[in-house]
Amino acid sequence: MTAQIPRIDPDRLLARLDAFAAIGATARGGVNRQALTEGDREARALLASLGQARGFLVEQDACANLFLRRAGTDAALPPLLLGSHLDTQPTGGRFDGALGVLAGFEVLEALEDAGVTSPRAVELAVWTNEEGSRFLPGCMGSQAFSAGEIPAGWTNILGADGARFGDELAATLGALSGVPFRPLGGPIAAYIELHIEQGPVLEREDIAIGTVTGIQGTRWLEAVLTGAAAHAGTTPPAYRRDPMAAAAAALHALAGVMAGDAAARLTVGRIHAEPGSINAVPERVAFTLDLRHPDAGALDAIEREVRAVVEAEAAKARCEAELRIVFDMAPAAFPPEMTALVEAAARDAGHAATRLVSGAFHDALFLARIAPSAMIFVPCRDGISHNEAEFVEPRFCIAGAETLLQATLSAQDVPRASS
Ligand code: HGY
Ligand code: MN
Ligand code: MN
User: Which of 16, 142, 153, 205 could be 363's S-S partner, Cβ–Cβ 3.0 to 4.6 Å?
Assistant: First the structure.
């Protein structure tokens, strides 16, 4: 049977997005499907069953990365890998990660429906814990895949909810008991990821496709300031060693980091006081710092400034300060030939495209360490993400999937379908 021209089925893709958005749906229209929770397991199980129903080989690896494989004619060739993530922020959106996974699945189905044969297998990967909001760091699945091993220290990492990573990983693997294991790691021929932009550029320029040239650097720090618990009513200022006062002064001073450099990003997303009593000066205050910059040297300079300011304010309050790096992703550029492949795919799919650097980190950053990688962005409304109001117009979801299909075909060494 000669192959037909593969085409994205818009209704099928949009229905899948709705079905997965229902898993972990929040009352305000978002999704709370954090890594290695019951919701994450439910979404993985649904995708696994959909893949098995289409005759794709479904496997998982020791880091609970999930793979759906559509075989090629030459099993010896490393596969072309598509992928993204299904885990979300606590108040996440319906598209962050899920669009890339479900568009990738739609590409596999379109190839299958059209009877396309190709030398390379096409695989879809669902990476474990991209977000890093429950268990630090982020991108655990793609880090382990690209390194070919799970760092020993991860097993005992405690999540924001107190759960132990090793336990939750084992429960997640066990929840897909019928799915066979595969070794952790490559080789892969290339990696292509579709994702929402999570910023305002594409919408502002009214362009459907972003050709991602690279990803800015990210560095996460955990700061712990330690003073002395004391009575809120009887302890005068001179007798206090108040880590909350020190933290407040430090964060106020650090607001200048972004004021001084338009490309710099500094976010304190989580702060916690112990014992956390209304009428006790805290003994300990811990907070997270998310630093971003496209330039590695500038990122180092921001870290130095953060350390100097936090340590100085702690000293003023006669507190100890400890800051440790918990996640460090150097900026990276995607190879020109992969960027060109995405631009050609957008053109072939009939969509305008523009180049941009990603402000968010992605699993593609780690895949780029072991294979030529590329990312395709689509606009999200008002650039909102990591927020339950995240929204992508259906036409952009479809444009992204059509571009991913064309990129898959051209990366497959098969004649590109003329649309
Ligand atoms: O935080 C990030 O950049 C990614 O969206 N998880
Ligand atoms: Mn994401
Ligand atoms: Mn995200």
Answer: 142
